């Protein structure tokens, strides 16, 4: 329901009643209203952003035209500009959306209580690969594809910064995670925490490419197991006093 606040405003010698604001009920707060040809158009901003993310994920920043984006989002160009700004701003929002919805949730699997470190790492990698191979979305990884594209295409500066920030987030998070596990004596101090982070991110970039090439999650699971089994998840041997 829309509630319109009215207020008396003096105009000349007459008092007039005019609307001074529109208060949206809670279930409409995510709706965007854009005027076109004198009529109001309504769409779900979060859903439009999700669909824009899919277009960028499939075609990349350079490959995604404005027509591709607005068609995928189900809105027109004026609506897109009004809600998200230009293409670069939309890409930055889509990158943030991917991090929050698809990248960060897998991190929780690294902290499951009562599960050995090795299994937590396997669960984390398995969840990400399952997402990479999910046929309901573009295959691969949005961030991985963006990083690859940024190395060979001319992309605006702020979009590049968003890609760098998103890519750096996972490396920083995993580095801190493995450092904590070493401090908790769940992992040998022979390992460098950042090296482990880069090791597994390199693995995930590879599985992302393979998933785009048609490999299934089941096929890639053996790659995960092989990579994890190369490491020793035993803590340092303790010497009795």
UniProtKB/TrEMBL annotation:
Leader sequence segment: none
Domain HTH tetR-type: 42-102
Keyword Transcription regulation applies: yes
DNA-binding region: 65-84
Entries under Gene3D superfamilies matching the protein: Homeodomain-like (1.10.10.60), Tetracycline Repressor, domain 2 (1.10.357.10)
Keywords carried by this UniProt record: DNA-binding, Transcription, Transcription regulation
GO molecular function terms noted in the UniProt entry: DNA binding
Family annotation (Pfam families): TetR_N
Keyword Transcription regulation found: yes
InterPro entries according to UniProt: DNA-bd_HTH_TetR-type_CS (IPR023772), Homeodomain-like_sf (IPR009057), HTH_TetR (IPR001647), Tet_transcr_reg_TetR-rel_C_sf (IPR036271)
Record protein name field: TetR/AcrR family transcriptional regulator
Native species: Aliikangiella coralliicola
């Amino acid at each position: 329901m829309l509630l319109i606040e009215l207020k008396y405003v003096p105009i000349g010698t007459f008092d007039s009643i005019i609307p001074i604001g529109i208060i949206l009920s809670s279930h409409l707060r995510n709706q965007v209203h854009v005027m076109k040809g004198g009529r109001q158009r309504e769409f779900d901003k979060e859903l439009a952003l999700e669909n824009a993310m899919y277009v960028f994920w499939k075609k990349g920043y350079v490959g995604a035209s404005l027509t591709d984006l607005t068609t995928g989002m189900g809105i027109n160009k004026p609506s897109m500009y009004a809600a998200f700004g230009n293409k670069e701003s939309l890409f930055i929002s889509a990158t943030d959306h991917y991090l929050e919805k698809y990248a960060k949730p897998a991190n929780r699997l690294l902290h499951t209580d009562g599960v050995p470190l090795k299994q937590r790492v396997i669960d984390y990698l398995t969840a990400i690969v399952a997402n990479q191979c999910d046929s309901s979305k573009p295959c691969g990884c949005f961030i991985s594809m963006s990083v690859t594209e940024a190395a060979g295409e001319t992309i605006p500066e702020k979009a590049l910064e968003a890609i760098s920030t998103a890519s750096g987030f996972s490396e920083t998070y995993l580095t801190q995670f493995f450092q904590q596990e070493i401090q908790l004596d769940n992992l040998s101090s022979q390992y460098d925490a950042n090296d482990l982070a880069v090791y597994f991110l390199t693995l995930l970039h590879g599985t992302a490419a393979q998933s785009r090439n048609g490999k299934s999650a089941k096929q890639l699971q053996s790659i995960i197991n092989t990579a994890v089994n190369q490491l020793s998840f035993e803590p340092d041997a303790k010497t009795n006093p």
